[in-house]
């Protein structure tokens, strides 16, 4: 027989229950462990018996464990946690655990902390998953999140178009002032950065193309290269990427901050469709602004390429324009412009989805703004590639 007693009472001449100190008495014999707890087991005192309780949790080979709580005079969630942790540790090893002498507080607190102990208790053996399992788990979670985003995007698009306040002639009609304001912010306000970036990219393409074509004496073909590449692909793609970073993040931040301040709930309370009121003007502004900005980006990129071709390769602007007229046609121009409304719709819907998913913290807002930009740029590039494959299939 092994008998152990742990008593941290400052006054050894008084019983533990009277001086408020926790007391743990154990008796182990033949695979049977008996524990008798007494005194105050609360937040202020359980630290004094925590080490002893952990030693009891670590004992292996026990067939039966008995825990007597009749001597406990005070119990809170901290004490219930440490007791339930001992019970759970031996139950997971297959021991028969019985708890007796429960007070009314113990009958309430022990079941209350049981789920937390079972889910995150330190006594549970941790299963290490392999790298392949972790990778597959991440892929599965990403697929489910993508599915949820697609469903939510369809909901937002439908609610935007079919919202009650969007019907002309109803009490809450379309607000042209809100649409014009968003066009000014997202379209006109983005012109300087679009012009600057597009001109630089067009100049870089022209310089690199002329540098390589110089070896073959075909520098004039840099006009064909720049014209087709800018008008079909890069003009709309650069515009969509910059709008995703500039306007998409702003949409997510605006809607997310409204969600945090419960302004979205207020719209619902007064009978309006929050999706239509907040998203519709922004989507319309993007649908109008992105094609216009694409045209501006095309002109800026061609202007930058023309300047570099003149300074670097000696191709005068007149020759550049004549060659450009011969190398492109309307299909080249429309191949890029057709993509613009789809890019605008993608950026707007993704930004709105992430804005509506914002929680009540600043960390949530920052995370969803970042996710909005990353997802929008990724989807825009994928859709641009799908358009390229489709154009090649129909010989457009």
Which secondary structure elements does this structure contain, and how are they paired or packed?
Blueprint: E1 2-7, H1 16-19, E2 23-29, E3 32-41, H2 50-58, E4 64-75, H3 77-92, E5 96-100, H4 104-120, H5 131-162, H6 176-186, H7 191-213, H8 222-260, H9 263-269, H10 274-313, H11 317-327, H12 330-337, H13 339-356, H14 362-394
Parallel strand pairs: 3-4, 4-5
Antiparallel strand pairs: 1-2, 2-3
Helix pairs in contact: 2-3, 3-4, 5-10, 5-13, 6-10, 7-8, 7-10, 8-10, 8-11, 8-12, 8-13, 8-14, 10-13, 13-14
Transmembrane segments: 188-208, 220-243, 264-280, 286-312, 333-353, 373-394
Domain STAS: 22-146
Region (Disordered): 1-29
Please explain how this structure is put together.
Strands 1-2-3-4-5 form a 5-stranded mixed β-sheet. The termini are far apart. Mean pLDDT is 85; it is low at 5-18, 122-126 and 164-171. It has helices spanning 16-19, 50-58, 77-92, 104-120, 131-162, 176-186, 191-213, 222-260, 263-269, 274-313, 317-327, 330-337, 339-356, 362-394, and strands at residues 2-7, 23-29, 32-41, 64-75, 96-100. The chain has 396 residues and is of the alpha/beta class. 68% of the residues lie in helices and 10% in strands. α3 (77-92) links the parallel β4 and β5. The radius of gyration is 35 Å and the shape is elongated.
